[in-house]
Amino acid sequence: xxxxxxxxxxxxxxxxxxxxxxxxxxxxxxxxxxxxxxxxxxxxxxxxxxxxxxxxxxxxxxxxxxxxxxxxxxxxxxxxxxxxxxxxxxxxxxxxxxxxxxxxxxxxxxxxxxxxxxxxxxxxxxxxxxxxxxxxxxxxxxxxxxxxxxxxxxxxxxxxxxxxxxxxxxxxxxxxxxxxxxxxxxxxxxxxxxxxxxxxxxxxxxxxxxxxxxxxxxxxxxxxxxxxxxxxxxxxxxxxxxxxxxxxxxxxxxxxxxxxxxxxxxxxxxxxxxxxxxxxxxxxxxxxxxxxxxxxxxxxxxxxxxxxxxxxxxxxxxxxxxxxxxxxxxxxxxxxxxxxxxxxxxxxxxxxxxxxxxxxxxxxxxxxxxxxxxxxxxxxxxxxxxxxxxxxxxxxxxxxxxxxxxxxxxxxxxxxxxxxxxxxxxxxxxxxxxx
Length: 435
What we know:
Layout: H1 16-22, H2 25-28, H3 32-48, H4 54-73, H5 85-97, H6 110-146, E1 151-156, E2 159-165, H7 166-190, E3 211-212, E4 215-216, H8 222-227, H9 230-257, E5 264-265, H10 284-307, H11 322-342, E6 347-348, H12 350-356, H13 364-373, H14 378-390, H15 400-403, H16 412-418, H17 421-426
Antiparallel strand pairs: 1-2, 3-4, 5-6
Helix pairs in contact: 3-4, 3-6, 4-5, 6-7, 6-11, 7-9, 9-10, 9-11, 10-11, 13-14
């Protein structure tokens, strides 16, 4: 292990197994960009506090910007023998600038540093995720608009329920994803960047000196600042909910693509085959979206459980929040990106869907509503139509005389008018229509 940022009171070398077990650079190197950004803000604070001269500030600023540029270009190869990304950036700066780099860590602890880095990472990825979710919502809305006249059977308990427009069904997911975006946006808006907590008790620099982009950023409570991971848990929770919504949509599309439903055709570019069965066209992408919901839940639970028994303030357990956080962002961004490409290529099999709409039980509630509007109590109407459906006869072909045995108000003409998908859709007036 090289260039530790600690160790003055130690006489023994760290056991190699301990070094390997405790290091985090293999995953926290994703924070390299944000570590440089945070350090650039920190040296501004040090300069304003007169702990850096103008010359020292300029040298450190130039060095950090050079490292940041190489990170953004993708040319920086991280040496994973270091303890963490903070140590490695410090090492690069020392190698480039010499002794002046030793002043970078003045009035600073990694306890405080990693919180800022992680929040900066979250802000960038929340913004990126919101853009991707927005694109998926637009594609879903367009799919809905392009198939505005298509009517499908709705299901409850996976049994035929009532006719609905495909637009209403798809818009349910637009609503879900819009709530996801709102949740993520709220987390973005509420996230407060802080510097100056030090290791736990604060620093000798006046709170007024702590600013990021001219905005005050000193902590209200230094202990809470270094020990808080609520923001990570909130992000993971929001991403897990998004994953659940994606999983539900994936499941609908998987079901609709089966021979038993046969409502849609999924473009071959988003399917795979079987190594044994030549005929297979499997919706593997959608199955993985469905499966990844478990990973997203697990990422949330791992951080919740990790945090639940920690005494104040910082504990090393807390470095274990990074991998779940990085993983969840990557999963959700990948899934919404794939969905935005898959949706426009879905083909709806209108004839197969139309044949399902011939199921007369789909119109049972409409027939009960007809009797209610004629003055029959709903409980009685419910029983009457239930018996009619259970008779097993094709209701549309029953003559008025036969229908009147169930209730005098039931006629052949009335029943034929009711058992119609478009009539059923138009009769529903409680849902707000979109402009």
